[in-house]
TrEMBL record:
Active site: K363 (for fru-6p isomerization activity)
GN (gene name): glmS
GO process annotations (BP): carbohydrate metabolic process; fructose 6-phosphate metabolic process; protein N-linked glycosylation; UDP-N-acetylglucosamine metabolic process
Main localization, broad class: cytoplasm
Keywords of this entry: Aminotransferase, Cytoplasm, Glutamine amidotransferase, Repeat, Transferase
Function summary: Catalyzes the first step in hexosamine metabolism, converting fructose-6P into glucosamine-6P using glutamine as a nitrogen source.
Annotated catalysed reactions: D-fructose 6-phosphate + L-glutamine = D-glucosamine 6-phosphate + L-glutamate
Residues of the full protein shown: 247 to 614 of 614
Protein's name according to its UniProt entry: Glutamine--fructose-6-phosphate aminotransferase [isomerizing]
EC main group: transferase
Length: 368
């Protein structure tokens, strides 16, 4: 069943180009327009939406953070992201014109399920992004976008996460399409760029030995920091979560701009710090993060920098450079996440842990 792999997670990481491609499959018509079969909400209903709230747990919530950047940029509809376990306990302001988007690989996570039940009681419309056909969350939703990642067995989500992000992009582009043609050119450009992603993910897999070797070099470290900005921030959070889940080491992801407001106090000689650099197209973001890298390097951090091809500005301050294929800024998480997954899996394996079934965790948590 593992097809020659030692761990399901390794197999699932390698299946990501297909998971991305399959999630895109059949969703663009011959006229170039998006078609989402399981949408079930009419264009008129979608045009009434004036607020979007994404709810999810764990890794899925990081897909939600990426969704916020993309959906707001393409649709200009305000979009919040909230942990499902917090959502219904804060008396959220929702009504008929709110679209609640629940992201869940399993479709059975109790926190997320209870949140959508609450949202529907408040008459919000609920759309779920789910990988499991016929599971409870999509059954209780008004609309569904299925991710087509195939069954995910390893507890730590990998291909589930990438396909959730793809579904979020599709949702954002679809809402933009429904709203009108203002972003028409950008929509078709992004669709083309999405179709180029599987080959770019494949390249990250082909270059995986670089991070495997890095894991061997850093196997004795007990703490790791991850820094990102814009959509690199959720990537940093996911990189840290994977290390906690799999390697049981302290790991923390944070927004690069927050460095000076606290986390820089943690930096000491030899502390490994992963930094996700936004594409150069985003000058200001890119420059700011390069100066962050300089700051932590000057304080002795061991800097592992994820940066797109052709951007050499960080090279003088990087102990390790991990190259990323060029993508539009919003899509960069689809490639930047992959080496962090491979790193966490390799570190866990070197430490002798069960990569597929980490201690204390369950694939789908059916209690609140
Ligand atoms: C956790 C899993 O318990 O649930 C995570 O360990 C997962 O890997 C999270 O991201 C959410 O699960 P789901 O199925 O709702 O996406």
């Amino acid at each position: 069943e593992k097809g020659g792999y030692e761990w399901f997670m390794a197999k699932e990481i390698d299946e990501q180009p297909k998971a991305v491609a399959d999630t895109l499959l059949g969703r663009v018509g011959t006229d170039g327009r998006l078609q989402l079969d399981e949408m079930r909400l009419s264009d008129d209903e979608l045009r009434e939406i004036d607020k979007i709230i994404v709810i999810a747990c764990g890794t899925a919530s990081y897909a939600g953070l990426v969704a916020k950047y993309a959906i707001e940029h393409w649709t200009r509809i305000p979009c919040e992201v909230e942990l499902a376990s917090e959502f219904r306990y804060r008396d959220p302001i929702i009504d008929r014109s709110t679209l609640v988007v629940a992201i869940s690989q399993s479709g059975e996570t109790m926190d997320t399920l209870m949140a959508i039940r609450y949202a529907r009681q408040q008459r919000a419309r609920v759309l779920s992004i789910c990988n499991t056909n016929g599971s409870t969350i999509p059954r209780e939703s008004d609309a569904v976008i299925y991710t087509h990642a195939g069954p995910e067995i390893a507890v730590a989500s990998t291909k589930g996460f990438l396909s959730q992000m793809v579904a979020c992009y599709l949702l954002g582009l679809y809402l933009a399409q429904v709203k009108g043609a203002k972003y028409g050119d950008e929509i078709s450009h992004v669709i083309d760029e999405l179709h180029a992603i599987p080959a770019k993910v494949q390249r990250m897999l082909d270059e995986g030995d670089q991070v495997r070797k890095l894991a061997a070099d850093l196997v004795d470290r007990r703490s790791f920091l991850f820094l990102g900005r814009h959509v690199g921030y959720p990537v940093a959070l996911e990189g840290a979560l994977k290390l906690k889940e799999l390697a049981y080491v302290h790991a923390e992801g944070f927004a690069a701009g927050e460095l000076k407001h606290g986390p820089i106090a943690l930096v000491e000689k030899g502390l490994p710090m992963f930094v996700v650099v936004p594409p150069r197209a985003r000058d200001q973001l890119q420059e700011k993060i390069v100066s962050n890298i300089q700051e932590v390097r000057a304080r002795g951090a061991y800097t592992i920098v994820l940066v797109e091809d052709g951007d050499d500005s960080v090279v003088p301050f990087a102990d390790v450079v991990i190259r990323l294929p060029r993508t539009p800024t919003l899509l960069q998480p689809l490639v930047a996440t992959v080496p962090l997954q491979i790193f966490a899996g390799e570190l866990a394996e070197l430490l002798g842990h069960d990569v597929d079934q980490p201690r204390n965790l369950a694939k789908s948590v059916t209690v609140e």
